[in-house]
Amino acid sequence: RLLSEVFGTFLLVLAGAGGAVVDAVSGGQVGRGAAVTAPGLTVLAVILFMGGIGGAHLNPAVTLAFSVRGDFPWRRVPGYIAAQLLGATTACLVLWAVFGKVGMLGATLPGAGITDVQAMVTELLLTVGTASSAQNVGPLSAIAVAGYIVLAGLWAGPVSGASMNPARSFGPAVVLMDFDTYWVYLVGPLAGALIAVGIAVLLRGSGGD
């Protein structure tokens, strides 16, 4: 389970942060549409080929949402989050080793003219959808989660980077040693996950199945 979380989060961040890195290296040949589609498609693939092993959370906010709702044992939460942070950090270290510290290593930052609070609220709202769709069961959950990630990135990428994932933002932050705005990508997604649990309970009842 833990290996699947490390590997899955590694692939997610490699695609998500790698889009910005390759865009910088190639002189802008990776457009925003491709940059937000790549991580969505990566999540689709990871859920389909490893979801049956560890659930393919790939995101501390999703792990938290499952646990608060009673669908995931709390004893596994520390290990899952550590695995996700390790996978994200390893992906950014690989990008650094291959391409150098270009494109801010795909760091998620508030957009030009966007305050930290605006970005945090945006991340909160986006994560409500991510954590809610992650509650789906079966192969269609892969399409639901991946599709939502792409949709969120298309409209909210310029505002906050559409991280929705504390691990995704942690990787570049720790490698660059720049945590100035990391609180945006910690508070927003975790608060959004808790709201998503409330919505899931209202729509489908309590978890624990």
What is this entry, summarized?
With 209 residues, the protein is mostly helical. The chain contains eight helices and no strands.
Task: Explain this structure.
This protein has 209 residues and is mainly α. Helix content is 73%, strand content 0%. The protein has eight helices and no strands. α4 (77-99) packs across α7. It starts with a helix and ends in a 5-residue tail after the last helix. The relative contact order is 0.19. The mean pLDDT is 92.
List the helices and strands and how they pair.
Blueprint: H1 2-25, H2 32-54, H3 60-69, H4 77-99, H5 116-133, H6 140-160, H7 166-176, H8 182-204
Helix pairs in contact: 1-2, 1-4, 1-7, 2-6, 3-4, 3-5, 3-8, 4-7, 5-6, 5-8, 7-8
Distance between the termini: 19 Å
- Count the helices. How many? 8
Largest sheet: none
Q: What would the average pLDDT be, to the nearest integer? A: 92
In N-to-C order, the SSE pattern is: HHHHHHHH
> Roughly how much helix do the residues carry, as a percent range?
over 70%
- From the helix content, strand content and strand pairing, which structural class follows? mainly alpha
Overall, the morphology is: globular
Percent of sequence in beta strands: under 5%
Number of strands: 0
Radius of gyration: 16 Å
